[in-house]
Specification:
Structural class: alpha/beta
Mean pLDDT: 94
Bound molecules: flavin-adenine dinucleotide
Strand content: 15-25%
Number of helices: 11
């Protein structure tokens, strides 16, 4: 297995529960994946102000709940401590080789898999396995937009959210945050308490949802029977009305209105950003047009002084150690049967390569139980042709709802997806 984040630990627990022998190779110095505090000089998407956006009940593992002392939305360092204590409780730490980076995974002529890894001393090892589980996450490679005209003349610092740690590092500076995803709104709200000025540059409107509606965490709403009984259209109308009552229109705050219905694209969860805008801590602006020495000029012709630009423009999936074309097919979509199994690479499975509206934990637990049963010979996979048909039908359905992007190709609806995995 590759990776000991939230997904890899769920898989390790499932393999151990099936009594299977396994080793988990993890490049970092500890378990926990993106929730672990990066060490000095290390990069990572977990900035200091990061808290869970999903509630602790559904983000903790089903048979090892997060501590009662934790708040509903714990801080990322608390999540890291919890993930380590889960690994201890599940008895999987002995199976995990820390500081070990997987460099290549290739199928041999006898059908097994050769995994080449490098340890912290730089020593390479090649080992053969009958099955490989990839749980290496999908928030690793930062996506940066093409440099804006004038970037070479800009005297300030340009960075990606992956290198952003804490608002206090920017005390007294003028900062422009680019994007409107979860990291962008968190980082802008964090900076607004430290920086001299925080500007949020937004190209495209996204739906912004609070963490709770009617005092209920959104993910509790998502599994409530009164919600799941509604059609997608009814759910859309319901949430659109609730948002209008709670906060009015996004254009009232100077943000662009979304050009799509809710649930036709990833939503942004934030309790803070709209309040920080209304309190004058964050100023919304449109997309960047060009840069000029110490100024950022926006597409509406306005400009601000800036010392720093933080691009919160997301991550791309990267699997440099896998055979080319897997799991991302020629069209740029992830092509996995039930989002887990590579049909043309027998024995290669993926855990956590899904993006739900809500927590991933129940999904990776169900994926892990299924893969462990397949590995134990207790569940059989269909013929590759059948798997390819399922993938094509799934991707066509997803493209209808979300459009044909790479990120959309891992989007899943929680309740129906869990039901599909239960049937496997
Ligand atoms: C900023 C941010 C906030 C989020 N908030 C939430 C939230 O509130 N709730 C929620 O449910 N989800 C959230 N997510 C989604 C998040 O992806 C999941 O919560 C979960 O942490 C993913 O776990 P993972 O194990 O799949 O990936 P990761 O946590 O990324 O772990 C992957 C592990 O694989 C290791 N690895 C990678 N490549 C190699 C290699 N070649 N060799 C060896 N080891 C390797 C990495 O070091 C890492 O430890 C958030 C994501 C981001 C980026």
């Amino acid at each position: 297995m590759i990776g000991a984040g939230l997904s890899g630990l769920a898989a390790a627990h499932a393999l151990k529960s099936e009594g299977l022998d396994f080793v988990c190779l993890e490049q970092a110095s500890d378990v926990g994946g993106l929730w672990r505090q990066p060490q000095a000089g290390e990069r990572g998407p977990g900035y200091l102000s990061l808290h869970l956006n999903t509630n602790k009940r559904l983000t903790g593992y089903a048979d090892f709940p997060m501590p009662a002392s934790y708040p509903v939305y714990p801080r990322h360092s608390d999540v890291a401590v919890y993930l380590r204590s889960f690994a201890e409780w599940a008895g999987v730490l002995d199976h995990i080789e820390l500081g070990t980076t997987v460099e290549s995974v290739r199928r041999t002529s006898d059908g097994s898999w050769t995994v080449v890894s490098r340890d912290s001393r730089g020593e390479r090892t090649a080992r053969d396995f009958t099955q490989v589980i990839v749980a290496s996450g999908h928030n690793t490679d930062p996506v940066l937009p093409a440099p804006a005209p004038g970037s070479d003349r800009f005297r300030g610092t340009i960075l990606h959210a992956l290198d952003y740690r804490d608002g206090s590092d920017y005390a007294g500076r003028d900062v422009v945050v680019v994007g409107l995803g979860a990291s962008a709104v968190d980082i802008a709200a964090d900076l607004s308490r430290h920086a001299a000025r925080t500007v949020l540059s937004v190209r495209r409107g996204l739906h912004i949802l609070p963490k709770q509606v009617f005092g209920m965490p959104l993910d509790d709403v998502a599994e409530a029977p009164w919600w799941t009984r509604m059609s997608l259209e009814e759910q859309r109308r319901f949430i659109e009305q609730a948002l209008l009552v709670a906060r009015g229109r996004l254009s009232d705050y100077g943000l662009p209105e979304p050009d799509h219905r809710i649930f036709a694209s990833a939503v942004t969860i934030s309790d803070e950003i709209l309040t920080r805008i209304r309190h004058g801590g964050v100023t919304p602006k449109p997309a960047i047009d060009f840069l000029d020495e110490d100024r950022v000029v926006f597409t509406d012709g306005t400009s601000v002084r800036a010392d720093v630009i933080v691009h919160c423009t997301g991550y791309r999936m990267a699997y440099p150690f896998l055979p080319p074309g897997c799991p991302i097919g020629p069209q740029g979509s992830v092509e996995l049967y039930k989002r887990v199994v590579a049909p043309d690479h027998p024995g290669l499975h993926f855990i956590g390569l899904v993006r739900p509206h809500g927590s991933v934990t129940r999904l990776v637990e169900a994926q892990s139980r299924w893969v462990a049963r397949v590995a134990a010979g207790k569940a059989a996979l269909p013929e590759p042709e059948v798997m390819r048909k399922e993938i094509a039908a799934y991707l066509a359905g997803i493209a209808d709802q979300y459009g044909p992007t790479q990120g959309a190709s891992i989007q899943v609806d929680v309740a129906p997806y869990l039901e599909e995995l239960r049937q496997e």
